[in-house]
Every structure is written in structure tokens, then in C-alpha cells.
Amino acid sequence: MEKPSWVPTLVAQACLCFSLYLAFQLGEPQKPMYHGTSGMRPLDLYFISVGGGFRPVNQQTHLLKQMEKVVKKYKAKFVVDISDLGKDDPLMQNGSLLFSSLKLPWYTTRVSERHGGGYFQKKINLPYEKTLDVIVVDTGLFTVHPRGTGSLGGFGNNQLHWLKRTLEATSSNWRIVVGFHPLAICEDGEEGMGAKKVFESLQLIFMKFEVNAYLSGQGCASSVRQRSLSYLGNPGRMEDGFLLHRVSTLEIVTYFVSSGGEVVHKSVLHQRGKEIM
């Protein structure tokens, strides 16, 4: 029996519809892992900073998995762990132990009251013979009074002198100082919640030696600018997430990545502190 003449036409139309559907599916841009980022730039350096400390196991595991995704996607070179526990921080220990891609250098802060040596400098190479200084200080050696003035003991003075010598000797293009305690202090009852008072001795040193950013635990705001200096705060455990930093020869771009993998905030620090957004 001869097939009706409309059967080949129907088959051809069905094949055409399927081909169009497949073409649309293949040509549709894929949803990026992290909205708000501009995609990886191979010549730039990426690193992560995160607030350490104790967390419930499921919360810690989820945070480390998000960090692992970012490390793989952007080939981050190291992690800065903002913690008062130093090398005993559980986030660093479990991250390095449980996730192979997180077995990269971790630089962690510590808080002590009577012991020196919790401060150090790491020089990171950038493209085009540029360098980045990551300088970690032990903020436990500083005592900050309510009026914003500092009272230093012997170990605190030793650290302060070391910081001056280190910054004076360096020729790095970017200089980031890292500490556990935020140095931008907020006053209640005023609008804006900006940086109202800053630990004066450190601020003067940062300004004199052209420090680009101070990276710490979160204070009153996630990002505060004091003239040419940027204060960047990592979120606490109540608002879990971390910061992804992209360093180029001309700017440092910082993204706050939430625990859900969404970029909800971005700040830009230009070389010589020309602008921050």
C-alpha cells in the first residue's frame, strides 16, 4: 500500500523542528558559576580571603566546597585565613585535608597577647615583573581604647617597628596588610555606619608607606575607604561567604561570594588609590 503524500512532509518538518531545538540549546549561553565576575583573566592573579573559626560541620563543608569551586574556576594561588587561632584554625586544617584543590598555601592570622612572631611578610610574583606584598600582623599585640588611641606593650612595639622597616624596604607594586581585628570602628547612632575612628598609629604607618589595603575580619562595613587606603572586611560566620580578589598591574577587584555562590558585592581599588567603587 502506498504511503500518503503528507507523511514525508510531516517527517521532514519534525526533523527540522528537532534540529532547530538542538541548535538553540547548543547556542544558548551557559549560566556562569558566579554572577558579577567578568570571567577569568589569565594574566591576573587570584586569591581568596575567608573568615576562619569554628562552624558546624555541614556549614564548614558547604563553605569549603564553594571555595573549591572558585579555586578551580579561577586558579586561585593562595588563601588568606582571617582567624585568631593561627595554624590551629579548623577551616584551614579541614580544607587542606579534605579537598585536594585546597592544598595550596594558606596564610593565616593569629591573636596573641604576650608572644611575638605572629607577623610575617609574603612576596607574591605578578606578571610583568610586578610583585604583591601580603603582610600579616598580630592584632592581639595592639590594645585599642574606646577613644581610638593605642597602648602598646613591648611585643606590640617590636611588631610596629618591624612593620615600619618592612614597608620602608619593600618595592612591591601592591601592599596588603592583613590582621584579625578590623581597624575601622563604627559609632552607634549615626547614619552611614562608616569608619569613624581608626587605630591611629597603624593608620599613619599605612598612609606613610602607601599601603593599598587592610584586610581583616568584618567591622561595621564590608568595604571602607580612608583616603588612598581601603579597609576590606571578611564576613563573619553569621553571614557566611568569602572574598575573591583579582590582582592586576592596575587594579585590585574584590568580590564577595555568598555561601550560595552568588557575587553580591564588588569593590575596585585602582593603583595609587585613585578610585574605589
From TrEMBL:
Coiled coil: none annotated. Keywords: Signal. The keyword Signal applies. The keyword Iron does not apply. Residues 1-29 form the signal peptide. InterPro entries: Metallo-depent_PP-like (IPR029052). This is Calcineurin-like phosphoesterase domain-containing protein.
